[in-house]
Amino acid sequence: MGSLFRSEEMALCQLFLQSEAAYACVSELGELGLVQFRDLNPDVNAFQRKFVNEVRRCDEMERKLRYLEKEIKKDGIPMLDTGESPEAPQPREMIDLEATFEKLENELREVNQNAEALKRNFLELTELKHILRKTQVFFDEMADNQNEDEQAQLLGEEGVRANQPGQNLKLGFVAGVISREKLPAFERMLWRACRGNVFLRQAMIESPLEDPTNGDQVYKSVFIIFFQGDQLKTRVKKICEGFRATLYPCPEAPADRREMAMGVMTRIEDLNTVLGQTQDHRHRVLVAAAKNLKNWFVKVRKIKAIYHTLNLFNLDVTQKCLIAECWVPLLDIETIQLALRRGTERSGSSVPPILNRMQTFENPPTYNRTNKFTKAFQALIDAYGVASYREMNPAPYTIITFPFLFAVMFGDLGHGAIMALFGLWMIRKEKGLAAQKTDNEIWNIFFGGRYIIFLMGVFSMYTGLIYNDIFSKSLNIFGSHWHLSYNKSTVWNNNYLQLSPATSDYEGTPYPFGMDPIWQVASSNKIVFQNAYKMKISIIFGVLHMIFGVIMSWHNHTYFRNRLSLIYEFIPQLLFLVVLFFYLVLLMFIKWNRYSAKNDFPMTEACAPSILITFIDMVLFKSSKAPGKDCNVHMFAGQSFFQTIFVLIALACIPVMLLGKPIKIMQARKLANEEVQPITGSSDAEVGGMSNGGGSHGGGGEHHDEEEMSEIFIHQGIHTIEYVLGSVSHTASYLRLWALSLAHAQLAEVLWSMVLSLGLNKEGWLGGIFLTVVFAFWAVLTVGILVLMEGLSAFLHTLRLHWVEFQSKFYMGHGYAFQPFSFDTIIENGTAATGETE
Description:
- By secondary structure, the protein is an alpha+beta fold.
- It is built from 24 helices and eleven strands.
- The chain has helices at about 20-30, 50-75, 95-155, 185-195, 230-240, 255-290, 295-310, 335-345, 375-385, 395-410, 415-430, 430-435, 440-450, 450-465, 490-495, 525-560, 565-595, 610-620, 640-675, 680-690, 710-735, 735-760, 765-805, 825-830; strands at about 10-20, 35, 170-180, 200-205, 210, 215-220, 220-225, 245-250, 315, 320-330, 355-360.
- Strands 1, 2, 9, 10 and 11 form a five-stranded antiparallel β-sheet that branches.
- It is extended.
């Protein structure tokens, strides 16, 4: 089989590279992405490896690039991303890159420091400007108060004590700026520390000021403190220092204050000019860096990844050759050799690299080739467990069965069309959407599964046509095959009137495609009819799905030449499933084919026996009862005899599954011990299941050579009990197809009858407005509940049916994924991953 149905055949190879050509060769392998290197120095500390200095240099370059990226994003400058991936630079180009990054970082830091110093100076001058303005108001008020005092002295008003001692004492003052949040605490501290001997005046600065350190907007207030004496002056200054208040010199004379204010305004204008030029220069530097930043990141990450990979290699005795071990796909060895040859030519080395295939008994990694279509389906399988080496891959079959089983639960032509159109839109716009590279996890999940969504929508449209269901209504494409023999008044007044298929009401021929639209208006027995139909097809699809899973195990057993599992597991498992549950499916078809309302007695509809009761009686060895008087008990001749044989065969399969394989292994070991020699030929394959068609690897075969016999018996017993009981529970589990389909149809009908029909019953222009509002509400509920929530529910149930009911029949999932050294993966993840698997 091709690699689509099984993982690729892998080979463990040994690679010899000359030291001067190793970098270029690993670079070519990284572009190819088909080689997984093994760590040959697991005991060596990461800081003691050969190329640790080069990795540190790359880390330093990445740090500088991240600094540039942060500054570019801070200014909102768009970074050019052409989508192209430049080649990994040569080692000698690292020096040029380091010099370029060093120059850019130093220049940008110097510009930022100058800009910060200028902003700090600008802040100080702005604060000083506000101090001079606000204190001028304070001093003007004091002057007005002094004039009033002088006038009061001249008029001799009572209560004014102008000649008191200390009235003519001179007061000192300090002025400054403090954060508005600290002002109440600052005022209380001044009052307590100075015992109320200071006078504080404050005024708010209306516009916020920019903090030069972090660029935050800060609201501040101007204050002026009057005091008397040097002791209070020292105390006030210490309090200001503790509250991080900034003090500024403020002249006492009005003329000096005006002169200082004029000088401050001139300096602010000059600073604005210099700040603008500084910002323009910084912007030009960042714009120039933004054009190359993405390419620089790619180059540095490629260099770092190459040296990380070279640290996995070993040096030979001469210190001139690097030795590596790697897993490679067998079909791509020639492609890898061509890449190595290109790397050698690029480096100018005259010694060609050597790639030798090694023999090993280790389990190789599992590598399934995927494209943008099959990648999402393979991800569903790998989420359950990575396939064992060369094990049957369920992904190709899941491409059909997954959307189909989903559609059985989600069958609605309208809802399926919405889902299919959404998936088709993502497929048509996939290049542009993929280039956006958003971090939204939910969107990434939807976009990654766009082909699954599209197929689920298309299959749901198909099953919607089969159910004849579109937004809970039916399509009358071919016309109904039922006709009314009653007059209209009888039909309208009788809600429980039924049409008999035995009369001329029914044409006698089935509807050409899907379900007859007459069932849409059948209010009394519509659910009864659909329940019987959907329940039976759920069991049919479930049994066929499980039988297909058991047949898949046959491919595994024959490929790995595991005769014991083939004879004592596959055959009894298939027989057990067929004689019980496939026989149940046959009874459904026999009943549909033999019993009809138009048939003569005793093959009429009334004499049709219950399949469930028949199956229960069959398992319990009980004789069935006739469904009516003079009706036949059995559907066909010899039914009772065949049912007894089928149950006996199923019971006989259980001890074969339970004891057959362990006893054969025990006999083979006893024979080997008696002959005192290893079992050869087919017995070796039977006992250990070690050999396979892909080489010397164990792969998906079972290993029993080192297991105790008690463990083998216990393991086989658990496996047998799980299969026998699971066959019953898994068959019942497929009834979720019927249950979710019924729930989906009923929810759609509820939304139509209780929401949209309200708007459709209104008439006139008001009815049109009301219908628009109701339709919008109905559309939101339809998309939000029936498409998204019900779609997610059906998706999870379908996933469970594949993981548990289907894959448990053949899929081990004990492997580990192939993780090649690939630049594309490294750049996509933003890390310097090496592809190493421990």
